[in-house]
Amino acid sequence: MNDRFSHLDDQNNPAMVDVGQKSETQRTAVAQARIRLPEEVVKQFAGHEISTKKGPVFQTAILAGIMGAKKTSELIPLCHPLALDKCSVKIDMDDDQVVVITCTARITGKTGVEMEALTGASVAALTVYDMCKAFSHNIVIEDIRLMAKSGGKRDFQR
Catalytic residue among 18, 85, 95, 130, which? Predict the structure, then answer.
């Protein structure tokens, strides 16, 4: 690991990391967000989906997560704008009434896609919250974290 922040120049001013001399490699990142749902929301399930006046919650959250990942550089200062090769969002419910959102982002490029995967998972989670808040405000978004990354200087696996 570096002993200084990568987004600061020699005068400690914010700066975009120069990736111009780096080689292109295939890079993948997987991020996860968890949402703890109260019983009032869980009761709304029909099959593997929650239907609301705004539409199907999980299907809408999947689209929002992908859109969020694609717009990461517009949301997070100093992130490089990336043309993702692939982005997918998967939503499951575990046995503890917790929604598990997994966002996978992939690119062949000079910089990683961790922020894109994290943003995708976060935006999908926020969309679930937004669409379900009419049933309860006791929804808790928790544990947004990077699960794995590969293709850069060092791989990571949680």
Answer: 130
